[in-house]
Amino acid sequence: xxxxxxxxxxxxxxxxxxxxxxxxxxxxxxxxxxxxxxxxxxxxxxxxxxxxxxxxxxxxxxxxxxxxxxxxxxxxxxxxxxxxxxxxxxxxxxxxxxxxxxxxxxxxxxxxxx
Amino acid sequence: xxxxxxxxxxxxxxxxxxxxxxxxxxxxxxxxxxxxxxxxxxxxxxxxxxxxxxxxxxxxxxxxxxxxxxxxxxxxxxxxxxxxxxxxxxxxxxxxxxxxxxxxxxxxxxxxx
Lengths: 114, 113
Known about the structure:
heterodimer, A: four-stranded antiparallel beta sheet, 0% helix, B: mainly beta, four-stranded antiparallel beta sheet, 46% strand, globular
């Protein structure tokens, strides 16, 4: 099993550009989530989903959109990138529909907004 | 929401036991304690979790005090590869009714040769 796959690993954007960070898991996990990690900080929850068609906001959702059309995929969209969104982004999944439990994390996507 | 308090950093000699403390004095009766670690810039890795009984797996042991207000993660024989940031997390129920894990700054464990 590949686990949780994130693409791209690195991305540089200009202010105002849009892009999508991809996240896919092959473990048939119901719960998926996106975190961001700024230098020297812990992870902050952006959005999460407890199943296909269901999404909700986490701690820092502004500037990001998500959708969950399939169990496997949970893309994160930046509509108009800002320098404050420079960060490392982690996608994570867990089996339970009730929410976060034993999370499996992806390797991360490092985003720089100029 | 229950919050956790961890020392920002600790050192441990290679081959010795690493004991990482965590305070969660406001924990509720049905809230689990989870431990994760993050090696360098990789994605966090699950270690262990528990409710009120002590737990052990192939990676570590988790000791939870009887009043559940604190816990200790024990790595029995620390190696250089255990150098990482260790997060103690209390799982809480969000307003939408599902469970979330909130990561603080954790404890930076340095294993010294």
